[in-house]
Structure formats: C-alpha cells, structure tokens
Amino acid sequence: MNRITVITRNAALGPLDYRIDDEQQIAMGSLVRVPLGPRQIDGIVWDREMVEVNPVPDHKLRKIIAIADVPPISAPLRRLADWVSDYYVAPLPSILRMVMPSSYALDNARTITEYRANGVLPDRMTPKRAAALDAIADAEGTISELGRIGGVSEAVIRGLIKSGCFDAEQVSIDRPFDLPNPQFAQPKLNEYQAEAAYKMVEQVKAQKFACQMLDGVTGSGKTETYFEAVAEAFLQGKQVLILLPEIALTEPFLDRFEARFGVRPASWHSGMKSTQRRRTWHAIANGSAMALVGARSALFMPFTNLGLIIVDEAHEASFKQEDGVRYQARDTAIMRAMKENVPIILASATHAIETRYMAQLGKYETLTLPSRFGPAKMPSIKSVDLTSEPPERGRWIAPTLLKEIEQRLDMGEQSLLFLNRRGYAPLTLCRTCGTRIECPNCSSWMVEHRFTHRLACHHCGHAMPIPKNCPECDEQDSLVACGPGVERIADEVRDLFPDARTIVATSDTLYSQDRAAEFVRRVEAHEVDIIIGTQLVTKGYHFPDLTLVGIIDADLGLAGGDLRAAERTFQQISQAAGRAGRGAKHGEVYLQSHNPSNPVLQAIVAGDREGFYEQETLSRKSAGAPPFGRLAAIIISSEDEAEAISISRAIGAAAPKIDDLHIYGPAPAPLSMLRGRYRQRLLVQANRQIELQNILRSWIYALEWPRSVRVNIDIDPYNF
Ligand code: ADP
Ligand code: ZN
Known about the structure:
By secondary structure, this protein is of the alpha/beta class. It contains 19 helices and 30 strands. A 7-stranded parallel sheet has the order 11-12-10-13-14-9-15, with helices on both faces. A 6-stranded parallel sheet has the order 16-26-25-17-24-23, with helices on both faces. It has a 5-stranded antiparallel sheet with strand order 2-1-4-3-5, with helices on one face.
C-alpha cells in the first residue's frame, strides 16, 4: 500500500494523508479528488518531505477517488508555492487557490454552456427577475456567472432559461491558441536596442536562471527590445510569461504583441469569464499556449515548458498584493525564474530602489537604453511656482500651463493633465459648521463624484447620494467641494476651452478591457485634444501627437511623509512626463508646485535620474530601510478599537529581545479604520542577516487572541 499527501484549497485544513493501491501510479503534483468525511474535495498530491503531516495509522487511511486527466503541477511550481508560503508566512492552501483557481481541472466537461439574453421576457415577471434581466442585458456567461452579475441565485437564472429568455451556446475549452510566429514582423533595432537584445537572447539560449534589469528611459523602445528575447524563446519552442501591472494596459499590449508575432497571446486577469479561464489554464498546462500576458496572479499558472519571464513596468506598486496572500509579484517572479532555472527580465524607466541596488551589487545584469527611439527626444521639463503664479480663484491651472494648452489646441496637438485623484473633490465640507463628510466604515473622507452624483469611499466602496443639507447641522446648501479631483479639472478645462474635446481617464472610466481599448482608439484617432487622468494613463501608452504634459499638483505625493514618498513621486511624475513628445514632435512638461525647490522635483526638472537614485539610496541606508534592512508589518484589527489596541500591545510586549531586531509601535496603521475595523500596526525592522520569518512564526503563532481580532503579517510592506 502506498501513502500520499494531499494539500487542498481550504486554509482550515492541514495536509491530508490518503492511500493508493500498490499497482496504482501517481505522479507528484497530480490533481486528485479525495473523500473528506461525507464530502469530496479536490487537492494536489504534495511532496511529503515539504510539509508536516499528522500521522494517520495505515488502517484508517482512505482511498483517493479520482486522478484528474491533466498534467501534474510541476516540481518548480510546487517549490515556488512552498517558498511563497514560507517567505510570506501564509498557509500553503491559500497559495494553491492561485495555482488551481477552481476545481476545473477535475471537471471532465470539455464544453461549457454560456447564455446570452435574447430580449424575450418571461411569462411571469417579478421585481427580482426584472432587476436581474436588467443587470445582465449585455452580459454572457455560465449560469453561475450570470447569477453573480444579476445579483440573484442560480435558481433564478435557471427559471429564466426555462422561460426562454436566453440563447445558449456551447463553448469548447479545448479550442487551441494560435502559435506565434517569431519572424512575423521583425523591427530594425537601433544600436542600443540591438546590444541589449543580444544579451537577452544569449540568456534565453543558455536556458538557465539570470535576472536582467532593462533600464530604458520612457519611449526608448523597451518592448521591441525584449520582444527579441520572446522571439528566441518561441524559436526554442518555449513558453513565455509576461506580467503587466494593470488590466487597463493589457488590451493595447495584446495588440502590440499581435503586430509583432501575428497572433494574440493568451491573457490572464481578474476580469475574465470562467470559460476563458478554463481554456487558458488548460492550454498553459498542456503546453499548447506559448505566451501568457497577465496581471500578478498569472505568476502561479501551471506552465509545463516555461523559457522566459518578463515583468514590465516592474517598479509598479500594484505588483504588491495587499490582501489575502500579501506577496510582491516582482520578487516572486524572480523566485519562479530561479525554481524553473530560466531567465527573467525586469523592464522599467523608473526601477525600484530595491531593484537598482541588486543590479549595483551585480546580482542582476544592467541593460541600458539611454535615449528615446527614433527622432524623439526626451521632453523638456519646467516647474511652475504656484506661490508666485497662482491660478485664478477657484481654479487649479496656472496661467503658464493654460497658455501652453491653448497653443497645443491651435497646433492640433494633444495634452495630458495628470492629477492622481479620482472624482470631483477629495473633501466635502460644511461652510456653516465645518463638518467634513467621512466614511462611516473607514478613516477617510468621502470623495465627490459628480458624474454619478454620489459621494464614495475609495477604500471600502461605500457610496451615497450627495446630501442637500449638512448631515451634522442640517443647514441647507452649505456643503462645498474642497480641492480638485480629475473631474473638477475636466470641468475647468471645458469651461475655459469649450471647443476642446476632452476625456477623463481613471479607473472609474476605464474599468474594463473594452473601455481601455476604446480610450486608446479615440486618442490615437485624434478624437481627443485633452486627456485628464490619474496614474492609470501614465504607464505604457504611446501617443505620438501628445506633446504637452501638465502635472496639476506635483506636491501631492510628497505630503504623506512615509519613506517611500520620494521614490513614488519621482516614478509617477517621470512616467507621466514620459508620455510627452514620444513621436517626431518635441514634448514639454510643466510641474505645478508650491515648493519647486524640493529635491525630488529639482531632480526631475534637471533630468537627473542618477542623482535622485543616489540621494534616495543614501537616505534609505541611513534609515535602515529596504533594501538595507528588512521590514515586516503586523496589522492587528478589530471592530472594537480598545480590543485592537490591547491585543497589539500584548503582541508587542511578547516580542523576542534580539540584537538588531527593532519593534516600532503599536500605532494606528496608515488607514486606522478600514471597512469597519480599527487597525493597529507593529513595524518590525531587522538587519538582513536575521531570519525574520522564523522569528515571526515562533513569536506570533505562540500567542492567542479572540476570534474577533485578525492578525495579518505583511513581509516587505510597500508602505513604511
Ligand atoms: P518604452 O516602453 O521604452 O517606453 P516603447 O516600447 O513604447 O517604449 O517604444 C516607443 C515607440 O517606438 C513605440 O511606438 C514603438 O513601437 C517604437 N519603436 C521602438 N523600437 C522600435 C524599432 N526598433 N523599430 C520601430 N519602432 C520602434
Ligand atoms: Zn470606507
């Protein structure tokens, strides 16, 4: 008799032991269905030596029910999952949820039925049915997806199907992906590109681990360059994984990939339908899909034949997952490349301090693209001192910038106004009593959204109509909007330039792939004169007619005071500035600031990237912050503030006394209340030699706390 260990997707369950018959063969990593009490559950056969199993006597072992007819999860991916579990102090099952996002591998269904509303109304209409039909008017999907979209149970959808309200379509999950053609449209590289591409191609040929930092200024043609490495991987018959930070970027990227390789690659992100998900997961697992473009979760896909990983815009904060398993996708991608023994390329114009430091140490190879591709030059950057040149009362755009916008309109060129604030106004205030309208669930202000006529919390999604009277003093019409959001800037622009065609580009307006694609199409077709957008439009996009970028409030990100503020501001403004003058026409950038002598802004204006990084690296070093020291945050939350405080004090008091291990706090976390829970934070700082995770495990997990308290460990927190 043989004993095997199975890990499920259920974090409440530890590793489970089962038996298989002597003659049965089972590979490590196989997906299996097993009995658990009266139920059946799916899991993955795991290497016993990697996990701690409670010994179950032989005669009590139960037999597995079925083995899925899919390739087993490979050893490198299993070792990656073990590493993530260990490093980020997270239970293995919560990582398997990403490796095996649903039980589909064990489903034998190769075709799935999708439904689409056909306009037929049911004989018996109920308010619930009407609301559901309304919500899913344009949607298509499986019964459970339609239920979710319509906000009703699957039974309601089944009833509507019976009444003939939907057309059904059988979709095959085995429909293959087209094979990319490495020679489809090979560009002629300039000398810098050619040199960088040569070094990347060499690594792909070597097929062993190496990390390369592709450091190219905005518009230098990083994508075309790393596409050469991608082409080489295809020539070798290897799969490629390309990680992008944002779903809004995926669609234009897929087009670019298609222009280069003749086919659209598979993609992977949270907005996908389950049919697409299944099809993609299987095609990656059986090796028939050669390229996958996706957000951070694509990192856990079951590649069988991976040959190269690329992380584009590698500095982006959105690679850090902030709930569930709190992992940094860039670091985890490097670890996956190591486990798979394949090369990885990190591309950006504004690499993270951590990445540059590793390159300095020689652990990553640096490849540089120092100038823009073709005739394009870097934009010239100037600051506008708002103290000496204030905008008109109640307005936010200073005369200098207005004049520049006007000139662009006259010349038929495009402008981008950047402000990293969604909505109309960040704060709503009562003129009479001074009350500021706060979210009832979070320590944050309610943000006015004028397009939807609502106040919304950007942290928990709580929303309400804009009240007519002050909720505190009941005075009529006394609420005023304070400060600008992008919608307010858009109003100002429309007011001043009534003939200009404007577009607001934020996650509120570009929430889907289709909307993002439509945005790109309109800007490219020059149906837009002025874009007003948040950080969402500052990355990746290439609009040749865009020659002016106005940074509405360059001081915004510097105000927070956390240690990453300077780096984040430098990255955001450089990326926004990087949208200007990418074609033949020269670009200009204006930074509006109350404090243009700030060293970060000065470095940007002077185009002194190296100087900025040197300064910032020094200040990180003197603070013992990453990459020089290690950090972990422990977030303790409860609906009861006193409880959150007392438990966090108890945890702090139980900290081990070790040299070079420092505990700061507890203190209110950066968002001290979130979704109705009070949050306290302990920051743990250690030097690099200390085994921080082991210390945390033996310290935190030895303690007990009431069920009403949640304790989350965040290794390498983004905010510190
Ligand atoms: P980056 O990602 O470095 O900001 P992109 O990859 O977007 O820059 O390149 C900028 C523009 O130059 C794009 O329109 C791209 O298609 C074009 N480009 C870059 N390299 C080449 C090349 N070798 N041949 C033709 N066009 C190129
Ligand atoms: Zn809220």
